[in-house]
From TrEMBL:
<feature type="domain" description="Metallo-beta-lactamase">
    <location>
        <begin position="34"/>
        <end position="245"/>
    </location>
</feature>
<protein>
    <submittedName>
        <fullName>MBL fold metallo-hydrolase</fullName>
    </submittedName>
</protein>
<dbReference type="Pfam" id="PF00753">
    <property type="entry name" value="Lactamase_B"/>
</dbReference>
<dbReference type="InterPro" id="IPR036866">
    <property type="entry name" value="RibonucZ/Hydroxyglut_hydro"/>
</dbReference>
<dbReference type="InterPro" id="IPR036388">
    <property type="entry name" value="WH-like_DNA-bd_sf"/>
</dbReference>
<dbReference type="InterPro" id="IPR050662">
    <property type="entry name" value="Sec-metab_biosynth-thioest"/>
</dbReference>
<dbReference type="InterPro" id="IPR001279">
    <property type="entry name" value="Metallo-B-lactamas"/>
</dbReference>
Amino acid sequence: MKSRRRPYSEQRPFDTGGGVWSVPVPIPGNPLGYTLVYAIESPAGPVLVDAGWNAPEAWLALRDGLGAVGMDVRDVRGVVVTHFHPDHAGLAGQVREESGAWIAMHEADTALVRLMRDFQGDAHRDFQADMLRRAGAGTVEVEEVTGNRPRPPAMPDRVLTDGDLIDLPGRRLRTIWTPGHTPGHVCLHLEDADRIFTGDHVLPAITPHIGIYPYDRVDVDPLSDFLESLEKVKGLGHLEALPAHEWIFHDTAARATEIGVHHEEKLRRLATLLAEAEEPLTIWEIAGRMTWNRPWEDFPPILRGMAAGEAAAHLRTLEVRGIIHRVTGVDPVRFAIHS
């Protein structure tokens, strides 16, 4: 089964075969349009892979979409969240309230959800502002980017680790830990059907956001984690992919190879950019000079913040590989090519 990405208004729930149904759930105000929520049949009730954005119209789409394929949201047994982002985890809590379902998430993202829920008052805004300042953003840009924070998702009931089997009677659905897009992102291998739910890890036409937050961290390397996770998925073979966005496609391994090549080329271009710079550059300056799908001047503030996070992730990988270095004793942090 393969479909092409169409506007949300043209999307419908459909049978992907083998007891797996796809339900499109809208993401208000987002160019992605929708999240594909999957419902896997079982004798004990369906298990959902992701749940969609927490908004009234999204809830109606999920509830009515399940109803259109003969399922009642009140019968849902569990929700496996591929990662904590709001277009995946947002409605998991409401599903649990309606059905008593469990919510499962990898332990690394569970820790992040707990941290998000512990932020009090202006703490998150202050955290964002300091991160942006250290990256070289101007005062006006800091004001424009900060303060945009979706509600934290519900805390999961069940914590997953790599290789865990999901509680899905009659099927074999195994957790594949694929960090990069988030520290606790997981894919789910439906072993009895040679299919894989890829979340945002492997998408058919676009690549997921890989960023570092705060931008100047030195204890993580999410892009290297992501590239290693692509190799892990490739090792499972040429499976049919059921991603969270766009469309179902064949040969996950081939697409994972393409995505890896894309990031290696991006790393080469970034190294060249720094080699040609006349002086060390801040993360914000580097992001503004990188090649994106639109001019930097046309980026809305929130996308500039995400672009800086992606620039930071690529810089960190080049740093770990010994190609560039960060200049010490300066604020904001700056990077330069090794001579």
